[in-house]
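Thread title: Can someone regenerate the structure for this chain?

I was given the following input by a collaborator and told the matching structure tokens would be attached. They weren't. Posting the sequence so someone can regenerate them.
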Amino acid sequence: ANLNNVYINGRRRTHQEALAYIKENFRDVRAELALAAGDLVWTTSKKVGYLKEIRDGRYVIEIRRYWISTEYILEEGEGISRDFREADLEGADLDRVNLNRADLEGANLNRVNLNRANLYGANLEGANLEGANLIEANLIEANLIEANLEKANLEKANLEGANLEGANLEGADLRGVDLRGAILIGANLNNVYING
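Best answer:
Regenerated them for you:
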């Protein structure tokens, strides 16, 4: 993510200046996350929050619940994180969202739209992804141990180096999936779609 030319306190900042300001002024924010507009940063009660912008030195979060969208400005000292363990995001539209290395262990992602989402290195251990749309999703090196991917659409997804040990892929669409180096020990592959 590139934070060049972001305005903070009325002044245009370089990428490094923006990261330094964020790290210094907000708890629980790790500069190496290099957050950018559109990154998923917050969830609760089936609501999702995206980083919209940094305005007057504060994060402006766009909160979406179904088709309703509101704005929330984090006050100084309020932190954001990439920890979504046990989050309930059932049916959420997370099209093209960036969840790079996010922690989604045990999360409910039933029927979630993750079309072209970036889940590189994400922890999805034990997550429920039943019926999820993961078309062309980036799941390189993702942890999917014992995840439920029953009837999920993974068409053209990249699962290179992913760990799917004990995962349930029954009835999943795996057409065009890249599984190079993926671990499939004990995975349930009954009735998966591979060709045609």
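The CA atoms of residues 173 and 193 lie 5 Å apart.
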